[in-house]
Design brief:
This protein has one domain. Helices cover 81% and strands 0% of the residues. The chain has helices at residues 2-24, 29-51, 57-83, 86-107, 114-131, 138-145, 147-167, 176-196, 207-230, 233-240, 244-255, 261-279. Helix 1 runs parallel beside helix 10 and helix 2 packs across helix 9. It starts with a helix and ends with a helix.
C-alpha cells in the first residue's frame, strides 16, 4: 500500500507543480502561492476536525515547522518554474527532495530490503536523467547558468526537509500536522503580500489553475502522510520524488516542451525503480 500511495503522491505533486508553474507565468509568484495555499487551508480547516483524530500540539508544531520550510520551497520552485524550463527545473528539485530523506532514513537506522534499496537508487537515477535530458538545449543552458537552477536546488532541499519533518509526526495525529503547516504557510505569505502590496487574488482566467495547484498540493501532502506511516521514509520519499515525471509529461502535452532521449530513458528507469520497490 505504501508503494501505491507513494506513486499517487508523485502524480499529485507533479500535476500541482505544473499548474503552479502555469499560474506564475501570468502573475507574481507570491500571489499564486498565497491563493493556492489559502484554498488548501480552507479544505483542511473544514475536513481535519471532522476526521476525529486527537489534537497533539507536538505534531502540530512539527507540521507548522514543515509548513514554514515548505512555503520557502514552493516560492523558490514557482519562481524557477516561471523563469526556467519546466522539464528541467522540476526534476532538479526532486533530486534534493529524494536525497535528503533517503540519507536521514538510512542514518537513523532504516534498513530497506535489497530490492527496495536498489529500486530507490534506480528511481533517484531516473530523476537525474530526466533533469539532464535537455542539456544541449538553449533553455537548459540558460537554466544551468542562471538563477532558475539554483532556485530549484534550494526548493529541493526544502521539500526534502518537509518530508523528514512530516514523517516524524505521530500516526494517531491524523492530518492535524497538515493544518498546522498550512496555517503557518498562509500566514507567512499573507504577511509578505501586505509588505510588498502584491495582489492577493489571482488574475481572471488563472483562478481555477491556481485553485487546482493548491488542492493537488494538499492532496499530495495527505497521501504522503498516509504513505510514510505505512512504509519507510527512505523508500516512500524517493517514490514521492518521482513527481517530475508528471510535470514533464504535462509540459510536453500542453506546452509542447521537447522530451529528449535521456528524459524518456529516465521515465522508463523510474518505472523500473517503482517495480523493484513494489516487488520487495
Amino acid at each position: 500500500m505504501a508503494v501505491l500511495l507513494g506513486v499517487l503522491v508523485a502524480l499529485s505533486y507533479g500535476a500541482g507543480d505544473f499548474l503552479g508553474g502555469m499560474g506564475t507565468r501570468a502573475q507574481a509568484v507570491t500571489t499564486v502561492v498565497a491563493a493556492s495555499q489559502a484554498s488548501a487551508l480552507v479544505l483542511l480547516a473544514v475536513g481535519v476536525p471532522l476526521e476525529g483524530a486527537p489534537l497533539g500540539w507536538d505534531d502540530v508544531g512539527l507540521g507548522a515547522l514543515a509548513g514554514g520550510v515548505g512555503v520557502v520551497g514552493i516560492l523558490l520552485l514557482y519562481q524557477s518554474l516561471a523563469t526556467g524550463t519546466m522539464g528541467v527545473v522540476a526534476p532538479v528539485t526532486a533530486v534534493g527532495a529524494a536525497v535528503v530523506p533517503l540519507v536521514v532514513g538510512l542514518a537513523t537506522g532504516e534498513r530497506p530490503g535489497v530490492l527496495a534499496l536498489i529500486g530507490a537508487f534506480v528511481a533517484l537515477g531516473a530523476v537525474a536523467l530526466v533533469a539532464g535530458g535537455e542539456s544541449d538545449s538553449p533553455e537548459h543552458a540558460k537554466a544551468g547558468r542562471g538563477s532558475p537552477l539554483l532556485l530549484a536546488v534550494g526548493a529541493g532541499i526544502a521539500f526534502g526537509l518537509v518530508f523528514v519533518l512530516l514523517s516524524a509526526t505521530d500516526e494517531g495525529s491524523g492530518f492535524w500536522p497538515l493544518l498546522g503547516g498550512r496555517t503557518v504557510s498562509v500566514t507567512l505569505v499573507g504577511l509578505w503580500l501586505l509588505r510588498s502590496r502584491t495582489p492577493l487574488l489571482p488574475r481572471p482566467g488563472t483562478r481555477l489553475v491556481v485553485l487546482g495547484a493548491g488542492l493537488l498540493d494538499v492532496t499530495a501532502n495527505g497521501l504522503y502522510l498516509l504513505a510514510v506511516r505505512e512504509g519507510l521514509l527512505s523508500v516512500v520519499a524517493v517514490l514521492s520524488s518521482l513527481y517530475p515525471a508528471a510535470t514533464v509529461v504535462l509540459a510536453r502535452v500542453v506546452l509542447g516542451e521537447r522530451l529528449r532521449p535521456a528524459q524518456l530513458a529516465g521515465l522508463g528507469l523510474g518505472l523500473a525503480g517503482v517495480t523493484l520497490i513494489a516487488a520487495a
